[in-house]
Amino acid sequence: MFKHFTLHISTLLTAALLAGCGSIEQDKRANHLQARTNEYQSALRWGYYDMAASFLQPGTHPDQNSTARFQGLRLTGYDVVQPLRLHDATTAVQTVLIDYLYDDQQVVKQLVDQQRWRWDGTRSAWFLASGLPKFVTAAPR
Description:
Layout: H1 2-45, H2 49-53, E1 73-88, E2 91-102, E3 109-120, E4 125-128
Antiparallel strand pairs: 1-2, 2-3, 3-4
């Protein structure tokens, strides 16, 4: 009887430990996501667009022509309008409102950036799957 009781207690403790480890892993992943989105925001705000591109999901880095739109770009605002929401263990979404201008135009524009972040288990990191913001340059006159 005592052996049977000990087996049940041992099984319950193991299950509780595994559940706790899963929770700890989930918390670590959520903290990592928050850190990554903050670093990405800082890279954009300070004009480090090559660094911002490094947050993109591997294999989706922009080519030289698509990064030309960052020439003379300056962000004047970056507001999270819908905080991070985890859809599942590997996908998260947040919505930000970005105010920006180009030095040669001095006209403030605004865009809504719907960011999709994906967890890469092989690299143990979150990456931006939705791409860099679609900044619009004015057509030449």
